[in-house]
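hey so u asked for the seq, here:
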Amino acid sequence: MSDTRAQQRLALQGGLKAVSSIEGKGEPKIGVEEFMSVAERFGFSEGTLAKIRQAVSEEDMGSGPFLANYYSDLPETKVQGFERIARETFGRKYAIGVTSGTAALHAAFVAAGVGPGTEVIVPAIGFFATAAAVVHSKAVPVFCDVDESLAMDPAKIESRITPRTVALAPTHVMGSVCDMESIMAVARKHNLRVIEDCAQSCGGRQKGRYVGTFGDLGCFSISAYKIVGGGEGGLIITDDERLYERAQGMVECGGLWRPDRFAPPRYPRELFCGTNYRMSELEAAIDQVQLRRMPGTVARFHKVKTSILRQLRTFREITPQKLNDPDGEIGYTLRFFPETFELGAQIVEALNAEGIGCGMRGPNGAPDWHVYHDMFPVTTKTGATEDDCPYQCPLYLQRGGNISYQRGDCPVADDLFDRCISVGLNQWYTENDCNNIAAGINKVLSAFCTEDPNATRWM
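ran it, structure tokens below
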């Protein structure tokens, strides 16, 4: 047989392969320069960066790392490791790493059945993302007033429930914890789902139980702005398999998480059009370390706050923030309410002069999306398009929905948010630091207030 005929014969028929080797060889898609870009973000000096570059340049990186959660040759990706640590830490069956706390809330609301024509009760104090995620889910947020813990007041929930209510979203604000046992009692009485927003209190507990494990789903912001996290990330935890699968459907573009990702639905409503909230490998690499550190971080903050509170005297004109569980507080902020704004201004000025950083919003504070009446994207009821969905959604209107928002809807929140004095705390304070801060607070309050052993105690 001629060489030409042999070359034309199919390899399947014993002929020569058309491609027996590849000559072209390039650089890895993700290689040394990308690694150095990450190293630079850590703030290393030029000398250290040069040493790092020399070390990594000596490695044969092959095709480079694959920094997505799927199709990895690793026994466990960083995202999978983060989710495993979350399951182990919180004692939940299921955990999903996502791109942000807002993404976690959105996916959780959709999983819980929040949608057009429905309402979700949210707290009057807490970051705007909670209410915004309700709107993203095509539902309407209804604000519930708070008590002196600054968290949702369980006694005021029932007055906000309507035939359209499908869920509650209590928020554990600024290192404190909600009264989850009371909130859950109301929810179960009315057959409502509970989505816990733990963005500001990861690691908080009530009666020894982690926040995020009381409700049907727990949502966390694992980010640089919180005590746990390095960049922008989030987490969803649950014990309910169906809720997990529905949340994964929202996070994973509909159904890509399934064992047979492109298969037809296995049960009604398993598949729907989700989005992409998948956590990246780089974010997970940082956050799995951060989550492991969480118990120690929380313990240090709690020790600092407790040490200070135990030394504070009680004063007639001062009401300390209510602690729903003093043993479960994280404690990165100490808060109290002066009797008047005038008194508060004097106290703030004096504490700052003593070297104790603090602040009070006051009666003329700038708008703040941590209090309901300033959450303008919600309170103006303006949708992304002219149909103003979900506020003017026919399904909502047909079910009797007619929400309105104005300052005065939640009078306790109106008062306490403006009148609260906040003292920031640091987990690394020494015993001497705590003693000095406590002495300084006592010194200032004694100068402006009336000491009274029968006044409200700090803890």
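The radius of gyration is 27 Å. The chain has a mean pLDDT of 94.
lmk if thats what u needed
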